[in-house]
């Protein structure tokens, strides 16, 4: 015959095991979110006077987007062009890129356009002659996004 | 009641309580699938442009929700058009300096949609390109219906 004290201990242990088991099975885990580092894309080409061009890219995770006109020259080997071009950030629409922010810029090392909180989706960067160009220029735009 | 019988009874009660609680937990974690019924195409956009020999043009459009898309190549005009002219018409996503089509067909101009599918939400594009039959630039007229 088992002493009553042992019965109480056993019952308590069973209840604790049951609670632990239930607690474990009802615990929900959030889906893991894998965050990777920012991606860098380069948009390069030739911009003619009075012309424009755009480049589409996909933001996979919500986050910052920065756009830098990294270089602009009239030839692959030679001095940098001194003219400014209009850099824009927006979304593809119709035959073009509808910009939500833009700036007339010279090439530089730091981002001339940025948006700290872009939602996931497709965006575009546009380059256009603001009226400064007198000849074709070669350009490189660096786009960093999440 | 003997102590051993009491242990068995208590064990059964705890087990039953656990099953009930776990059952509730399971039902609480039930997930519902998103609707898979595409919305009807309620918006129609028409566009036209010049297509060069060997060239590609694309037109971007935005879809607010998952829905049907229908693209119609309505007309191709130009000089020296070859008989049975077809152009490649596709639906895809803007990427880089072009439109990466996920579906493409060789289509002759007509009144009925030549390319259809379900997409969205998001930004998509229609790509139209020379299939190798053009000998001179042509004017292309097309329309895209989407949700």
Keywords summarizing the entry:
heterodimer; A: 146 residues; alpha+beta; four-stranded antiparallel sheet; 8 strands; B: 147 residues; Jelly Rolls; 1 helix; 18% helix
How are the SSEs placed, and which strands pair?
The complex is a heterodimer of chains A (146) and B (147).
Chain A: H1 4-26, E1 39-47, E2 52-59, E3 63-73, E4 85-93, E5 96-105, E6 113-118, E7 121-128, E8 137-145
Antiparallel strand pairs in A: 1-8, 2-7, 3-6, 3-8, 4-5, 4-7
Chain B: H1 3-28, E1 43-51, E2 56-63, E3 67-77, E4 87-95, E5 98-107, E6 115-119, E7 122-130, E8 138-146
Antiparallel strand pairs in B: 1-8, 2-7, 3-6, 3-8, 4-5, 4-7
Quick overview:
The complex is a heterodimer of chains A (146) and B (147). Chain A is an alpha+beta fold and 146 residues long. Chain A contains 1 helix and 8 strands, in the order H-E-E-E-E-E-E-E-E.
Task: Return the CATH architecture of chain B.
Answer: Sandwich
Overall morphology of chain B = elongated
Quote the average pLDDT of chain A: 84
Question: What value does the Rg of chain A take, in angstroms?
Answer: 29 Å
First-to-last CA distance of chain B: 71 Å
Question: What's the N-to-C terminus distance of chain A?
Answer: 69 Å
Strand order of the largest sheet of chain A: 1-8-3-6
Q: What's the number of extended β-strand segments of chain A?
A: 8
Main sheet overview of chain A: 4 strands, antiparallel
Task: Give the helix proportion of chain A (percent range).
Answer: 10-25%
Oligomer: heterodimer
SSE topology string of chain A = HEEEEEEEE
Helix content of chain B: 10-25%
Structural class determined from secondary elements of chain B:
alpha+beta
Could you describe the 3D structure shown?
The complex is a heterodimer of chains A (146) and B (147). Chain A is of the alpha+beta class and 146 residues long. Chain A is 16% helix and 48% strand. Chain A contains one helix and eight strands. With 147 residues, chain B is α+β, with helices and mostly antiparallel strands. Chain B has a single domain, classed as Jelly Rolls (Sandwich), CATH 2.60.120. In chain B, the strands form two sheets. Chain B has a four-stranded antiparallel sheet, with no helix packed on it. In chain B, strands 2-7-4-5 form a four-stranded antiparallel sheet, with no helix packed on it. In chain B, strand 4 (87-95) and strand 5 (98-107) form a beta hairpin. Chain B is elongated, with a radius of gyration of 29 Å. Chain B starts with a helix and ends with a strand. At the A-B interface, helix 1, strand 2, strand 4 and strand 7 of A face helix 1, strand 1, strand 2, strand 4 and strand 7 of B.
């Amino acid at each position: 015959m088992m002493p009553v004290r042992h019965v109480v201990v056993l019952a308590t242990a069973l209840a604790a095991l049951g609670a632990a088991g239930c607690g474990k099975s009802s615990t929900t885990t959030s889906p893991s979110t894998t965050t990777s580092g920012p991606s860098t894309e380069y948009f390069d080409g030739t911009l003619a006077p009075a012309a424009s061009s755009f480049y589409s890219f996909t933001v996979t995770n919500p986050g910052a987007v920065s756009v830098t006109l990294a270089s602009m020259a009239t030839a692959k080997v030679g001095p940098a062009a001194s003219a400014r071009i209009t850099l824009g950030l927006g979304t593809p629409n119709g035959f073009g890129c509808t910009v939500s922010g833009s700036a007339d810029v010279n090439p530089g090392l730091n981002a001339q356009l940025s948006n700290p909180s872009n939602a996931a989706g497709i965006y575009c960067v546009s380059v256009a002659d603001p009226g400064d160009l007198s000849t074709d220029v070669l350009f490189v735009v660096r786009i960093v996004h999440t | 009641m003997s102590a051993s019988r009491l242990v068995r009874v208590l064990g059964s009660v705890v087990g039953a309580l656990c099953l009930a609680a776990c059952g509730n937990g399971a039902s609480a974690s039930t997930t519902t699938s998103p609707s898979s019924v595409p919305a009807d195409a309620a918006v129609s956009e028409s566009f036209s442009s010049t297509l060069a020999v060997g060239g590609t043009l694309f037109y971007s459009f935005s879809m607010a929700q998952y829905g049907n898309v229908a693209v119609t190549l309505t007309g191709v005009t130009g000089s020296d058009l070859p008989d049975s002219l077809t152009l490649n018409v596709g639906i895809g996503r803007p990427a880089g300096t072009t439109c990466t089509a996920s579906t493409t067909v060789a289509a002759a101009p007509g009144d009925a949609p030549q390319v259809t599918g379900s997409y969205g939400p998001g930004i998509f594009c229609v790509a139209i390109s020379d299939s190798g039959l053009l000998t001179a630039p042509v004017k292309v007229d097309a329309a895209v219906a989407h949700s």
